[in-house]
Amino acid sequence: MACFIVPAAEAIAVTIAQKVESRKEYRMAAQNESNTNAEMMTESASKPFRIPFSRKLRWLSALLWGGSILLAFEHFWHGEIIPWFPFLSALADTEGTMGMLREMATVGVGMAVLITLVWGGICLAADRIASREQAEPAVKRIAA
Amino acid sequence: MTLLITVFAAVIVTVTWYNRKDDSMQLGLLCFLYWGASLMWFVDAIAEYIELHDAYFTPAPADMLNDSFLGLSAVALGLVIWLVRLLITDPKGSVRRALRK
After folding, report:
1. Which of A46, A86, A111, B50 is a plausible cystine mate for B40, CB 3.0–4.6 Å?
2. CA distance linking residue B75 with residue B26, whole number of Å
3. Residue B10 touches chain A, beta carbons under 8 Å
4. Chain centre to alpha carbon of residue A110
């Protein structure tokens, strides 16, 4: 009925968080660049590669927006989204509104939770893959 | 059927993304778009299965046809969103070059 509204709301929140985080990381990178202390440079060079959190948030945002847009299309297809006020056919009567809220609380929340869990898994896997790529040359060197 | 068609689209795009030469086609966006929709329709399918039980796996031919048509339309919409973004961001500069001719 309107289950996509829950992930869409999460998508808005994540997009805002991603913009804030991205700005913070940009400021930190600029600060590090301006610091010409040699000791600091060797320290940062020895640090393992880490995927920026803003990039990970962008993945979550893309998953949520993508799903929400295509699901909104599906709801439009089934006549659950209408091009005039109140824009959702379920809002026409109380029974429909209750059903819509129930669906949002069950299916909608389930969608948002599953996407967030899968994103968590993607982040963990991505961190491991990125660190593996970095460790591989050292392993090869030892083997040689 | 909608879920199945979107999952197939997501797998095909992901394999294409994995074999990419560079990021100029921005296939990552399309991957996230289809995987996001697939996961959401998967939850929808579970909810429907809880409601219908075995009847979920034996849909009426008319419903199946409608769902297939919806799935293909959703895939097409995803492609259009990706294409519009690709043309606007224009990573290869093809649009810019064509406009300056």
Report:
1. A111
2. 16
3. no
4. 16
Query: pLDDT per residue over A2-26, tens digit each?
Result: 888 999 999 999 999 999 999 998 8
The complex's ipTM?
0.90
* B38 contacts B78 by C-beta, under 8 angstroms: no
Asked if A77 lies within 8 A of B73 by C-beta distance, the reply is yes
- Does the pLDDT at position A84 exceed 70? yes
| Residue A68 backbone dihedrals phi, psi, to 5 degrees | -65, -40
For chain A, the domains span 5-143
CA of A5: which chain B residue's CA is closest?
Answer: B40
Q: Is A56 left (phi over 0), alpha (psi -120 to 50) or beta?
A: alpha
Chain A residues lying within 8 Å of B41, measured CB to CB: 71, 74
Average pLDDT on B17-22 reads 89
> What is the model's pLDDT at position A83?
86
